[in-house]
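Before going further, learn to read the protein records used in this course. The integers have meaning only within a learned vocabulary of local backbone shapes. To see the layout at work, look at the sequence and tokens printed below.
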Amino acid sequence: MTRKELIDSLKTAARPVYGEHEAAAVARLVAEVRYGLSRADCALEPEAEVDVGEGVGELLADLAAARPVQYILGEAEFDGLRLAVGEGVLIPRPETEELVRWVAEERADAGSVLDIGTGSGAIAIALARRLPEARVSAIDISGEALRYARLNNERHKAGVEFHQADILDNFQFSIFNFQFDVVVSNPPYIPAAERAAMPANVAEYEPEGALFVPDDDPLLFYRAIARFARRALRPRGALYFEIHEGLAREVAELLKAEGFRDIELRRDINDKPRMIRCRL
């Protein structure tokens, strides 16, 4: 198979799932990560032969079946880091990188940070890299997610402390013997009713517990985390959330009712209200 044939086959498999533009990006990503071919390689010598091995058929079938390309490759890029991911852990999104940058820019002096619902460890590890003097801790309910988080922590020598805990199940602050300057979270926030309209590569593969909340209580995790943060934060500590674009006003009102101040809402690169910060 030539390089051009490989790229064309990858795009053809990915196009029904990702659309024309994103399918081309997926094809380039797979070519680079799986076969070591840069974009320049494919452009300059498109007719050069590629030893794709026996696994190319399965790879193409997985793409066509909407299996996320990050799961196929076993990794995702986040804030300049390559993180191991797989079934059972949420794939980190570029939008969440903006939340990380906001925390790091605004709280460069933070001595301690807690990431709630860490998943692959993306937020915690990225903040540990950006705030090398901070003590960074993280929790998640999922043992499988924590397995990936610890692997990524070791890979990047981030020094994050991980704990398994459920923020909804009488979470005990006693597992920590100190308070935090920052609590940050990208919790589940998608109402279950929206699942049917979501892309198959998300709705059919990524862990439900990391994505969806009950239609009748979409602020479930925000409420629990805000109440926990009131005890866990030091005076003048800050709480940061990624939020559902359609629930920005409701989250802000909840935080105000819970006694937080200096509430600031930010829009992401797509001009959607997707992040919020408040302080004690």
Summary: DSSP finds eleven helices and eleven strands in the chain. Residues 180 and 233 are 5 Å apart (CA to CA). The mean pLDDT is 95.
